[in-house]
Fold each of these.
Amino acid sequence: MNVSTKSEYGLRALIYLAGKNSQDATPAREIAEKWSVPVKYLEQILKTLKEAGIISGQVGVGGGYRLMRPATLITAGEVIRTLDGRIAPMGCVSTSDYEPCEFEDGCGLKTLWARTRAAMLGVLDQTTIADLCTPVSRPKVIDLKTASRK
């Protein structure tokens, strides 16, 4: 599974909206400038997120977008499914967009793809936009050669 720029930009926009913490609507242009995203492309993404009920949009003066739910209730998996469709490495293990394979009967790879899908869903469906708003600190790198001499 490759995550498209559509999902990447959609997630970035939601992170930005969640970080605003205000009732004011945020214009697409502001989000686009923050993440260096083409505004027309971002507007298409935001329209899809609006149609899915993830964000609301308001046109005109003071218009823009805001989250429809708290960031703690919007998962990365929901966003990626909305923007890209299935979350599965291969169509033969997708529950929403199943694609049969000529080798499916007795194929040992199907087990691998199913386990991979389950692992991906475990991460994506347990990660909220609120989680993504918290910067990850880099773990301290320990030089094992130096540490073993002490």
Amino acid sequence: MSKINIAIAGVGNCASALLQGIEMYKISPENSIGLLSYNLGGYTPADVNVVAAFDVDKRKVGKSLKEAVFAKPNCTKVFYDKLPDYPVKVEMGPVLDGISEHMADYDEDKTFIVADQEPCDVAKVLKESGAEILINYLPVGSEKAARFYAEACLEANVGFINAMPVFIASDEVWAKRFQEKNIPIIGDDVKSQVGATIVHRTLTKLFENRGVVLDRTYQLNVGGNTDFLNMLNRNRLKSKKKSKTQSVQAELKEPLASDNIHVGPSDYVPWLNDNKICFIRMEGRGFGNVPLTLDIKLSVEDAPNSGGVMIDAIRCMKLALDRKIGGPLYSISAFAMKSPPIQYTDTEAKKMVEEFIEGRKER
């Protein structure tokens, strides 16, 4: 099989974990932890090849990709440090709305420092690099910047995986544009392997399946990476909160009233670094209208938690490219993303992805 040439917009913690995982799994063909399968449709993690990267931080722009993924303010766990000397230097992307002003008030090791360089021509870099797929790992709230990279993909004829909560794959206008150019798109807002959203969805479905009425619920998250610092600006949270909330609501036959559900980030705790702690509370009623309350706490390293999901999404998009399928990829979007164009239960979505890999048409 051919290589899968990818580009990355945003060389942060998620990009670091993704590249560490790709390189670790390359030498561990027996290891499929966190993946749908090691060999997916003929492609393995070893086939993923990074050919371009974009960022705006001066500690990353102009540096080799190997150096950039371990540069500040990245703080995720280093579980595999034997990265190759990628023949890729990080290009300066456009800042646009990628950085919130309040982040200038924090320690340099914890925040972004904009490079004093002019942005490159992203579409041109994508074309010249031979990239087939661009992964959007920009910070939450980067609405203009996310759409800029989506536009660059349309211009460069490159598939787009939108890992952040800006509604592009799930927006009818954008979806139609990718469909018309026969360019595949996966989105929006990546789910983790076992993260806050997938756990909350699963418990919500459990209540529904067991006949328990869910009256109210909340999900609160704290962490110490740049994403949580960025999200202290509540004006940047509208799409994130909507994405996480509708993902949980999708498991209910009758959605909860807005006053009875709160799903979203809560606070920034610097010393947690990339560790994310989630608190979920669910209040319901069982037989005889007798109250039932569930409280759980989940602690995970945030960036690696979505790395395997992204490797699966990359390989599914490559299959779509091989088969000349464009527009939203509904099955892998439903499986891998919080806000896909069409919501399915996680069980349904997994079955659909397996059917897609086998070569069956999507529903």
